[in-house]
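Q: I'm writing a short explainer about SIS domain-containing protein for a general audience and would like to include a description of its predicted shape. Could you first generate the structure from this sequence?
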Amino acid sequence: MQTILKEITDVLDKVDPQEVETAIELLGSGKRIFVLGEGRSGLQGKGFAMRLMHIGLTPFVIGESTTPSIQKDDVLVAISGSGTTSTIVSLAEKARKQGTAVLGITSKADSPLGTLASQVLVIPGATKTGNGKSIQLLSTLFDQTLHIQLDYICLELSRKLKVSNDDANKQHSNME
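A: Of course. Here's the predicted structure. Afterward I'll give you a sentence or two in plain language.
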């Protein structure tokens, strides 16, 4: 367990604080936030969208039947550890062509996703394609650090928006 915690800490220490701050500013500037990811990245993205809703923002998850069309003044958060997942890259390109800001979250800035994004947030954790080193399977290290980084972004957004824990709790589902 200590090795895993050290891996996570080591990766988080390598994340560029300026990229994080730029991501926070971009997310705070959009009318709505659309989240896109496949597999475990997509699952982390759904958790991120939920937390964005809790702090009063308007998120949607690409691929859900209730997701509206994305517009020019929205923000697309496209997540791919490798930065090469064809669906993610293709939809991010489509969003960029219509003028939507794209925050690409990947382990490689020079990947197709990293190079086409308006802003990139590099999380240099190991991925299933072999980027980085880890004792853990496939993209586990990327997924873990992604989750923590996205929660940190939500925390900072909540502070900027002056959303308290009580405020966020009022947005939490009451149909459980």
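A: For your explainer, you could say: The mean pLDDT is 93.
Q: Perfect, that's easy to follow.
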